[in-house]
Design brief:
five-stranded antiparallel β-sheet, single chain, 250 residues, alpha+beta, 2 domains, 49% helix, three-stranded antiparallel β-sheet, elongated
Length: 250
């Protein structure tokens, strides 16, 4: 039986260790921007925007991990069997983009205020504001588009479909040789062992469910091709292999 509580503690540990320094630094630089002298205000605002953007980015990543159903499965109840993965897109990614666009504007302000003789590093470099602007616009577009892209892992009679990032991969059953679960630290990843080529790994956030359960289901239908017609009915497909109970789960 998977140690679900242990994996949950790992996720919450990441929340504690990854997030808190960035909001703290962002708050300190904001205080600097408000109460500091006027000459230092542009650089203070730029740093505030950067650290706020990084804070929102890390929070978006960790919040997606928190949504993983360690005690069961997150599936869509319509269509074929489809495990819904965590989403990095949406409002949080738009917020990240806005922060970096703000950093770009602050960097331009800093460069203009510094004048040609100042040496404030990235603030005076044309590449600094441009880089922040590209990151910001990219995050905004990604945050808007991402929720509309196919997510998670889907199984039908012909293939297994898995998305990593913005790319959706199709793995025909005939090309799938085995399914394994291997630990990366204390967190298990699903490994789709291909007949030819490297093993295709999926993190828990990619499937939104306990990797052990998902791997068991994939392996069952890999070894029982005559049962794959059940994949048209997600609940029946799961009941054929296991019983999962819990709030909000099958």
């Amino acid at each position: 039986m998977p140690k679900s509580s242990e994996y949950s503690r790992v996720v919450w540990k990441r929340v504690a260790t990854r997030i808190w320094p960035f909001p703290m630094v962002s708050a300190l630089t904001l205080v600097w921007a408000v109460f500091g002298d006027e000459d230092s205000r542009p650089v203070a605002l730029m740093l505030t925007s950067i650290f706020a953007g990084v804070s929102a980015l890390i929070f978006a990543m960790v919040s997606a991990e928190i949504k993983v159903a360690w005690h069961g499965l997150r599936v869509r109840l319509t269509g074929t069997l489809h495990f819904t993965g965590g989403e990095y897109g949406g409002p949080l990614m738009v917020l990240v983009g806005i922060c970096f666009v703000g950093a770009a504007l602050a960097a331009v302000w800093m460069s203009a205020s510094a004048g040609p003789s100042a040496g404030l590093g990235h603030g005076r470099r044309k590449g600094g504001p441009l880089l922040y602007l590209i990151i910001g616009v990219g995050c905004i577009v990604f945050g808007i588009v991402k929720p509309f892209l196919p997510s998670g892992l889907e199984m039908n009679e012909e293939a297994v479909w898995a998305r990593k990032g913005i790319i959706r991969h199709r793995i025909p059953w005939t090309q799938l040789a085995d399914v394994v679960v291997r630990g990366h630290g204390k967190v298990p990843w699903i490994g789709l062992v291909l007949a030819e080529g490297p093993t295709f790994y999926l993190k828990p956030v990619h499937v939104g469910s306990n990797p052990h359960y998902v791997a068991e289901l994939i392996l069952y239908y890999l070894r029982h091709p005559d049962q794959r017609e059940l994949l048209r009915d997600p609940e029946a497909a799961i009941r054929e292999v296991m019983e999962i109970e819990g709030p909000g789960e099958l």
